[in-house]
Amino acid sequence: MNTSERNFARRVDLMSLQLFVAVCELGSIGRAAEREFIAASAISKRLSDLEATLGTPLLYRHARGVDLTPAGESLLHHARSVLYSLEKMQGELSEYADGVRGHVRVHANISAIVQFLPEDLGAFRRAHEEIKIDLEEHLSSEVLRAVQEGAADLGICHLADGGGDLQSLPYRHDRLMLIVPAGHALAQHDGIDFAASLDHDHVGLHTNSSIYVATRQAALEAGRTIKLRIHVTGLDAMCRMIENGLGIGVMPSRAFELMRGGIGRRLTSVALTDDWAQREIRLVARDFSTLPVAARSLVMHLQASGLAAAPSESPELVA
Question: Which pTM was predicted?
């Protein structure tokens, strides 16, 4: 942070930002003064000082209230983000007073969340009740971005391009299967190349998902295109669409087996013989060695869980 940035941070106080947001939300300095239990003149003075600090008008003032200038619109976005972060910080810090001894923010893709994390995180939570885990589901590309930007301590996802400057460690393996109705023409096969499915309509996941990216690339290499009729956001929705004859789809084998109880024999899976159908889910961090103790404990637990599930693998544990 340079000198001008430090001076700016010192001149802008949080109370002024909170009052600015209140005025924007209510469209009136008077109504904001009533809600915040402060004199309208005091709010007007703070807003004027804020405009002087920023060197630009933030509000159009008129008899009916106020409207935002373009600069005001930008400040409102950032002010809300700052105030939200402060509220979240307060909530997390208060948990330490209640006995929490660690807080790990985890972002993971849908494959990891559906197939492995419920059991693995549940076991960790039972062994470490004093550690709180916040888990969010995102696309693999978004998981990597969150870790890079510091929004997540730990990411769990597939790495299509190596992860850039981020560090990664092995966690689990999964295998992609072609899911078809039980009476489908492809259901009789034990295994097929993905290219053999391209004559049929497909139900696909989000266009930025790792599964969709892999299948699209495979189709391009085969000189074909995917007849993608429907996009869905979850694996359960994909199964329902396939079950009702709207296409076939690709999903991880364990995820399909976990969902199969509610599907019965109406759907079946066919192994994809393509090399890319064998995938590795990895743990991602900016630097594993600098993670807080709670996060390092979680990393070791997840790696141990993966090692126990696949004894032939020997991932390097984080000390």
Answer: 0.65
Among 96, 119, 140, which residue terminates a domain? 96
Quick check: is 305 in a domain?
yes
Same domain assignment for residues 184 and 261: yes
Q: Say whether both 246 and 126 belong to one domain.
A: no
SS3 246: coil
**Residue 56 lies in domain:** 3-96
CB distance 197 to 96 below 8 Å: no
Q: How many domains does the chain have?
A: 3
Written as one letter, the residue type at 301 is H
Q: Are strands 65-68 and 167-181 parallel, antiparallel or unpaired?
A: unpaired
Picking from 121, 134, 238, the residue whose alpha carbon sits closest to that of residue 177 is 238
Query: Between β-strands 167-181 and 278-285, what pairing exists: parallel, antiparallel or unpaired?
Result: antiparallel
What CA–CA distance (Å, rounded) separates 293 from 277? 35
CA gyration radius for the chain? 26
* Count of other CB atoms within 10 angstroms of residue 26: 17
pLDDT digits (tens, 9 = 90+) for 50-104: 999 889 999 999 988 999 999 999 999 998 888 888 877 776 666 555 555 678 9
pLDDT tens digit string along 149-190?
888 999 999 887 666 789 999 999 999 999 999 889 999 998
Q: Does 226 map to a domain?
A: yes
Q: Are residues 126 and 35 in the same domain?
A: no
Pair of tokens at residue 289:
């060695």
Q: State how far the alpha carbon of 131 is from the alpha carbons of 117, 285, 287, in Å.
A: 16, 19, 20
What does the alpha-carbon distance between residue 190 and residue 192 come to, in Å, rounded to a whole number? 7
Distance CA 319, CA 314 (A): 15
